[in-house]
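Quick question, first post here. What does this chain look like in 3D?
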Amino acid sequence: MPNSFHHHSHLKRDNPIAKGLTAIKIRDLHIRPALNALSLFDVNDERLLLGTAAIESRFLYLKQFGGGPVRGYWQMEPETHDSLWTYFLSQSRNRQLAEAIKSLLEVAEKVSIDSCLTNHTYAAAMARVKYLSCPGGIPTSLSGQAHYWKRWYNCSPHGRSEQDYIEVWNTFCSPMYSKFR
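> Answer (accepted):
Ran it through. Tokens below.
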């Protein structure tokens, strides 16, 4: 893994870094509570959300470098966030899901992409909803999840690759799931 992921002198002041959150903390404090609140807990969902946060933010970056629009550990774009609320969560069949997500917000907090900066459980829930809106079930293998992430979450041809996902997973997440390959 390149040193640039561990060396932070290149960060700008407007790019906040969440200090001290490890893969275990992200899983236990944010992913599991989000999945449980949505009544969607499954270990494959947990692993995919953990892998997505690892590849997207290294569990450090809450804003995109260079002033880009993405927010939170899952680096969700405002357009994606708003589209999920407008077109997916607004469907009558998803009313309970939408209410469960809203229940994760603080009293004064509004449904907004900016909530992904400070409410990591909400951000995890929105990342799960992004995958829920995609066809097919979540794969049960690491290579399958890398492909699913690339196909449905980070489909830019100029973005990171499936191999990058696997390498980041092996660096940050594999100690927690030693038999997941």
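The longest helix spans residues 23-37.
The two ends are 19 Å apart (CA to CA).
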